[in-house]
Design goal:
The complex is a heterodimer of chains A (566) and B (45). Chain A is built from 20 helices and no strands. Chain A is an all-alpha fold. Chain A has a domain at 3-296 and 391-449: Up-down Bundle (Sodium/glucose cotransporter), CATH 1.20.1730.10. Chain A starts with a helix and ends with a helix. Chain B is rod-shaped. Classes of the chains: A mainly alpha (566), B mainly alpha (45). The interface between A and B is large, with 43 and 28 residues.
Chain lengths: 566, 45
């Protein structure tokens, strides 16, 4: 990497961190630290919500996903705008009315301290693990492609986030996220331009879209009723809806973003902004992946994108060498077919398709063979595609900017998570039990504890990042992890909002039953006993909690009445 | 901390037509899905 790239990367990151720390240097009490003194406007809230959700994984993984399996992943977000409307109607006014710091505080008033603690604990477990992955995911990719030290990269990202999150709290997180989102969007638009620039003369955006469509990459909506398929319009509108209501309505890392709003109106507008912008943004990022795919029709793609993750030389094995030769020959034939297609021979597209299928098949066989020869080789290289393209095809200076995009995204979502983890640990556990012991309110001490907890969660996230392994596609890992807990958490909140007769004991047992059921379903899926897309865990968890809660409440009420009559 | 505020303090006084916002947002979602369906069908291989 050139010194210009290093300067752009370091300059962008330092400016944002210093800005966040400087602007919030006067935060002296717990309210300001955790809720930013309710000073945020709708734009900051909206961008902050988007930045918390969009981690580095979004920008590394999503284009790779489009490159490999097309645009279908956008269906995952179809439930999001509906979720924004429902949260705006039902959740937000309650949080505002009760002036809560965390979403879980509300549950104590509605049920009791045990339900609040259980739900807060589920959040701490899922988000605590996710924060580690948020740091680890970009670090592993950057370290593999750039030869950086993995541990050092994890520690560096973690420390930079801890600095401004500890010093400025929630407001620093929101303010820096606004600028981080600006860097991210500018970087992605520039990247899109340069992907198009990598096309040969005479081939434009619409030609690219047409070619991608002919090769099956533009099948965006799947209307089939197949529950085994991960992304369909139905799983997006139902499973996705439950996931997003739970994530935006009950996950403190998001709730904290809009609780910092000046008024209820600003918070609602922030949610509307997210509802309007999210799907187009994801569509755009997927489209970049599609354009990278098109670019690799004219520029030979490597047979694997994470070549540096193996120490094995292909020349050491005859079959690897043979596959490489076949891959090169196949690419040359495909290139001729593409030239014929663009010179007006429409039938040539059939040949292009055949050669593309052969190319994918050779790539798969090569990766399988490599993985058998080198146990440490990571077979899923989809997360490396976009960055590999950036490093090879983008001009000097822009590589630094794109790396700043990835770091900004990693830092913005990690900061939101650490801030929320510290708030929940402080409000739902520390101050709650201190107050229970009859302690006088001590704002200074609580602020100190909150800062200490931010550092601790940051430290834990770094440790998780340092010990994490690479699973499937990284963006899916984070969503699978969330889906394991969100169903139960949402079920508890839905019981609280809409089933007023259900009391604390029934809810507590129902939540435990719901959580165990989701974990069982996940293990059955993981061991191929059943085949179910992970988005369905969310409605399953919520419905089990609600049904179990209603049945248990009826049983408990009957029991009490029987005891009374006896 | 967990005190309930009077309803009139938290509900905004100005007249924002939230129903129009919600209908608009869902309408935009439907429009996007319709466009995506059209694109998918155009390239049905």
């Amino acid at each position: 990497m050139s010194w210009i790239d290093w300067s752009v990367l370091a300059g962008t990151l330092l400016l944002i961190v210093l800005y966040g720390s400087w602007k919030t240097r006067k935060n002296r009490n717990l309210e300001a630290y955790l809720k930013g003194n309710n000073s945020e406007g709708w734009m900051t809230i909206g961008l902050s919500i988007m930045a918390t959700q969009a981690s580095a994984i979004t920008f590394l993984s999503t284009p790779g996903k489009a490159y490999e399996s097309g645009m279908g992943f956008v269906q995952f977000y179809f439930g999001l705008p509906i979720a924004m409307v429902l949260i705006s109607i039902f959740f937000l006014p309650i949080y505002y009315r009760l002036k809560v710091y965390t979403a879980y505080e509300y549950l104590e008033g509605r049920f009791d301290g045990r339900v609040r603690s259980l739900t807060a604990l589920l959040f701490l477990i899922s988000r605590g693990l996710a924060a580690g992955i948020t740091i680890y995911a970009p670090a592993i990719i950057l370290s593999t492609l750039l030869g950086w030290n993995l541990q050092l990269t994890c520690v560096l990202i973690g420390i930079m986030v801890i600095i401004y999150t500890v010093s400025g709290g929630s407001r620093a997180v929101s303010l820096t996220q606004k600028w981080q989102m600006a860097v991210i969007m500018i970087g992605m638009i520039i990247a899109f331009y340069f992907v198009l620039e990598s096309f040969p003369d005479g081939v434009g955006f619409t030609d690219g879209i047409r070619l991608a469509g002919q090769l099956g990459k533009m099948e965006i909506v799947d209307t089939s009723l197949n529950v085994e398929s991960r992304y369909t319009i139905w799983s997006g509108l139902t499973g996705g809806l439950f996931l997003f209501i739970s994530y935006f309505g009950t996950d403190q890392s998001q709730v904290q973003r809009y609780l910092g709003g000046k008024t209820l109106k600003e918070s609602r507008l922030g949610l509307m902004f997210n509802g309007l912008m999210k799907i187009p943004m994801q569509f755009f990022i997927l489209l970049i992946g599609i354009m990278v795919f098109v670019s690799f029709q004219f520029n030979k793609p490597p047979i694997i994108f994470n070549e540096t993750s193996t120490t094995l030389e292909y020349s050491q094995d005859d079959s690897l060498q043979l596959m490489r030769t076949q891959y090169d020959e196949n690419y040359e034939k495909k290139e001729d077919a593409i030239t014929a297609y663009f010179s007006g021979e429409t039938d040539a597209i059939k040949n292009v398709r055949e050669y593309q299928v052969m190319q994918d098949s050779l790539r798969k066989s090569y990766k399988n063979k490599l993985s058998r020869l080198d146990g440490s080789y990571e077979i899923k290289d989809g997360d490396y595609i976009f960055l590999s393209f950036v490093l090879n095809y983008l001009p000097v200076g822009l590589i630094g900017l794109l790396l700043a995009v990835i770091f900004s995204a990693a830092m913005s979502s990690t900061a939101g998570e650490l801030n929320a983890l510290a708030s929940t640990a402080t409000i739902d556990f520390y101050t709650k039990y201190q107050n229970k012991k009859g302690r006088e309110k001590n704002d200074k001490k609580d602020l100190k504890v909150s800062k200490l907890l931010t550092v601790s969660w940051g430290g834990l996230a770094i440790i998780v990042a340092l010990t994490a392994g690479l699973f499937e596609n990284l963006i899916e890992l984070v969503n699978i992890l969330g889906s394991l807990f969100y169903g139960t958490i949402l079920g508890v909140f839905l019981l609280a909002f809409f089933f007023k007769n259900v009391k604390a004991k029934a809810t507590l047992i129902a939540a435990i039953i719901g959580q165990l059921s989701v974990l069982i379903v996940h293990f059955l899926t993981a061991y191929d006993i059943i085949d179910l897309g992970y988005l369905w865990y969310n409605p399953i968890g919520s419905l089990i909690v609600i049904i179990a809660g209603l049945i248990l409440q009826t049983t408990l009420t009957n029991k009490t009445e029987t005891n009374k009559t006896e | 901390m967990n005190q309930e505020l009077p309803q009139n303090k938290t509900e905004e006084t100005e007249k924002t037509n939230w129903t129009a916002w919600y209908i608009g947002l869902i309408g935009f979602l439907v429009l996007q899905i319709a466009i995506y369906l059209w694109i998918s069908n155009s390239f049905d291989t």
